[in-house]
Amino acid sequence: xxxxxxxxxxxxxxxxxxxxxxxHPHQALVAGAAGRRVGLPLRDGVLAFAYATLGSYxxxxxRCMSLSPxxxxxxxxELTPAVVNAATxxxxxxxxxxWSAVPGADLAxxxxxxxxxxxxxx
Length: 122
What we know:
- The chain is mostly helical.
- Helices cover 65% and strands 0% of the residues.
- The protein has five helices and no strands.
- The longest helix is centred in the middle third of the chain and has 24 residues, at 69-92.
């Protein structure tokens, strides 16, 4: 997802072409660079990324599991206060938020591109 996002960002803002040369562009890094490029305040960028991530996970869950779209929406509403709280804390003190990474999910997403059978094309 990071490489795909970097490609789109570079097409929209050619001065960010260097993002395409990253060996393993993480989607959060690319989103942060794009947000900075368009002048998005840090808190708004972090919050947008957090909501997008939550939405992506819920979308995948409705496609791969027996989770109804209605239940996914309920979960999104239930988690909204926690997402806002976490995004605000991360924006207020970015250095203190490095622990919040989910390396297992990142590694699984990275391996997904090389699998012979996948749930989603990417």
